[in-house]
């Protein structure tokens, strides 16, 4: 059940790439979710397209889950989505664990100017030196965090 | 009317968001446990590692790489006056420190911002807690780094 799924991964990756390509060539904007999300906060300047994009992001996942059910998590034929539980033996309530994770991700992507999409997809594709550093750091630290906590 | 309020601009944002969300579902990157199974390199020796995420990101980068080349030939995007290419170039403290903190948070939950938003479609327990924390963290980050564009540029140009 924990199977490696290369074909859906490649198809999904191409769709994410097309989404990024469209936003870039159409509107000259980088499809970086933390940036699109984070710049909704004051002093926000361009709010409307960001809200449109984020609403469509949710609808796109929902529509795909109904059109192509049963790929895994989500939709009528899928398992119900679950967030990770804290590591066994840590005695931390799940909501607190999740909240700390969310705070770190929000804060880190804000001061670091990007996440997996903005640095990871668009930044690498633009051959941005900053993005190569950011991606190398956050992947390494995330892998280390999983190894240290033993959460999986 | 501002360029970013015209219909073709907003329609582009909508179609891009739809494709992105569909891609996250089809690749199953909406499943935080699948993302964690990629990040769990300790499972490589035992054969339990799931390399799917690498296939997702490499495919996405390849498509975007072509689009960036096309964009460099053109003077401007279709529906705006210019490409909004980041103007920061230096590797600075906030970039590296931010990536470290993001990496810790990502390793704790397997959720990065794209899947976090698209998971609204499937609404797992504790998602609201996560999203409120994400929002609060982002807001706190905006208070800490220089808020003026010129100051941020001076730091990282």
UniProtKB/TrEMBL annotation, chain A:
Chief localisation class: membrane
Subcellular location: Cell inner membrane
Protein family (similarity comment): Belongs to the TsuA/YedE (TC 9.B.102) family.
Organism encoding this protein: Devosia insulae DS-56
Membrane topology recorded in Swiss-Prot or TrEMBL: Multi-pass membrane protein
Domain of life: Bacteria
GO cellular component: plasma membrane
Key words, A-Z: Cell inner membrane, Cell membrane, Membrane, Transmembrane, Transmembrane helix, Transport
Name listed for the protein in its UniProt record: Uncharacterized protein
TM regions (residue ranges): 6-26, 47-68, 88-111, 132-151
Pfam families the record matches: Sulf_transp (PF04143)
InterPro entries found in the cross-reference section: Sulf_transp_TsuA/YedE
UniProtKB/TrEMBL annotation, chain B:
Keywords: Membrane, Transmembrane, Transmembrane helix
Membrane-traversing stretches: 7-28, 48-68, 95-121, 127-145
Pfam families, per database record: DUF6691
Entry annotated with the keyword Transmembrane helix: yes
InterPro entries reported for this sequence: DUF6691 (IPR046513)
Highest taxon above the source species: Bacteria
Entry keyword Hydrolase: no
Coiled-coil intervals, chain numbering: none
Name under which the protein is recorded: YeeE/YedE family protein
Organism listed in the record: Devosia insulae DS-56
